[in-house]
Amino acid sequence: MNGNNTMKKKIYLEKDYNKIKREYNLQKVSSKLNYLDKFIKNGLIIGHWNFDKAINNIKTKDLAIVTGFSLSGKLHLSNKLVIDVVNCLSKQGAKLLIPISDTETILTRKPQKNINDDFNIFVKELVRIGLDTKKTEVYLHSSNKKVQYLLLKLLKSLKISDFKQVYGEDIDLPTIFAISNMMADVFYPFENGYKKVVVVLGVDEI
Q1: Are 181 and 147 in contact (CB under 8 A)?
Q2: Burial tier of 168 (Cβ tally within 10 Å: 0-12, 13-18, 19+)
Q3: Element at 90 (helix H, strand E)
Q4: How many Cβ atoms sit within 10 Å of the Cβ of residue 108?
Q5: Cβ distance 93 to 58 under 8 Å?
Q6: What is the rounded CA–CA span in Å between residue 36 and residue 161?
Q7: CA 169 to the chain's CA centroid
Q8: Single pTM value for the model
């Protein structure tokens, strides 16, 4: 590979991340969090919103970590990084929850033929890349009644104009439903008594 091309690609990626940080006002993660050192020093965690406020609850069992996956997607290297980060936070005392979205798959992507079988296969894949299932609540959207109830409450409270203001005029009803389901995942830990929730995302999901 041409060295100049490699350098150009590296500079391009660095500028891209800097642009994302500025555009979304991402804050720098505190260097005082020793258990996240390897992720911070290698630039694998590029920023956060209010993480420092939530992290104070990590030792008190009041903090929940949420990260999710779509049932239609395939696990890749970035997923491995996310699992490593959330596992690290879980070991510090936080509760880890991982919703697997079959509803979003049905609404916005190609539906799976056998959802339950695919879910079980997906969970096994998560274990293979390092997920500790003993400390994690992994659930399927359509099977979690509490999440579905929260979804209905959100849909009743929000207006289509709220979504258009954030996502643009072209947003459709299936996408609104899928986004609302993801929002329900974030509120779900509060229903179970947790006081703070941290959502861990890949940079492509911002």
Answers
A1: yes
A2: exposed
A3: helix 77-91
A4: 16
A5: yes
A6: 39
A7: 25
A8: 0.82
